[in-house]
Amino acid sequence: MRQRLSSEPDRYRGRRRVPTPPRSRYAAVVTTAFVGAGIVALGANAFPDAKSVSPSVLDELRQASITSQDIAARADTADRASRDSRADTKAAAKEDVWRLPLVGYDFKYPYGMRWGKLHSGIDLVAPEGTPYVAIHDGTVTKAGWFGGYGYTVIVEHPDGSEAIYGHSSEVNVKQGQQVKAGDQLGLVGNTGHSYGAHLHLEIHVKGQPLDPVPWLEERGVDITLQIEAIYPEVAAS
Ligand SMILES: [Zn+2]
């Protein structure tokens, strides 16, 4: 910059009383043209050479360059933050796992009408005391006696759906607890209105029960065949 200025014709020398901003200032101003639309008017095109620039414009440029450095710093922070959140999203997707609630059961009574009323879940028959686990990550919203359901655990998942695990002999979690897919919630039992040791599993979406079989199948779990991740490429994506 200095060399180029000293090689310019003498007639310009007398007017060059205004301090010339160092190159980094120009770079900052050019950056501003991309970062802050409000300062674009002061960008490179508006400032081809220092000789036509008044001191007040230089002051503005100095201010602009300070601002642009702030903006650049903020933009950098925002970019890093968004990259972090993308990484979080990716990590969350990997953890978007659905599991069978237990292994080694007889799939007994499906969802649907039974004895003249809706059976609002499915029954998985297993010996009393068999541990059962969370089918998905979530928050325990109920852990204790729940009328006809007996000892019950309810887990609310991040998507707003709920899983209800009924007729337990005991529950092993507390209300408010965060659980991951596969964490033990309780033991299979015969409490409440139950005809024998089994896990009654209900899925509620928007507060209404639905058939867990196709719903879980969409999430990679075939509960009638006791298979997890039947569509591994979907479950993993
Ligand atoms: Zn049932």
Fold topology:
Elements: H1 2-6, H2 23-35, H3 55-94, E1 106-107, E2 112-114, E3 117-119, E4 122-125, E5 131-133, E6 138-145, E7 151-156, E8 162-168, E9 170-171, E10 178-179, E11 184-187, E12 198-205, E13 208-210, H4 212-217, E14 221-222, E15 227-228, H5 232-236
Antiparallel strand pairs: 1-4, 2-3, 4-12, 5-11, 6-7, 6-10, 7-8, 8-12, 9-11, 12-13, 14-15
Helix pairs in contact: 2-3
Bound molecules: zinc ion.
Describe it:
This protein is an alpha+beta fold and 237 residues long. The chain has two domains: 2-94, no CATH class; 106-236, Glucose Permease (Domain IIA). The chain is 29% helix and 25% strand. The chain is built from five helices and 15 strands. The protein has helices at residues 2-6, 23-35, 55-94, 212-217, 232-236; strands at residues 106-107, 112-114, 117-119, 122-125, 131-133, 138-145, 151-156, 162-168, 170-171, 178-179, 184-187, 198-205, 208-210, 221-222, 227-228. The strands form four sheets. Strands 1, 4, 6, 7, 8, 10, 12 and 13 form an eight-stranded antiparallel sheet that branches. Strand 6 (138-145) and strand 7 form a beta hairpin. Helix 2 crosses helix 3 (55-94). The two termini are 54 Å apart. The relative contact order is 0.12. It binds zinc ion. Zinc ion (ZN) binds at residues 109, 119, 121, 123, 200.
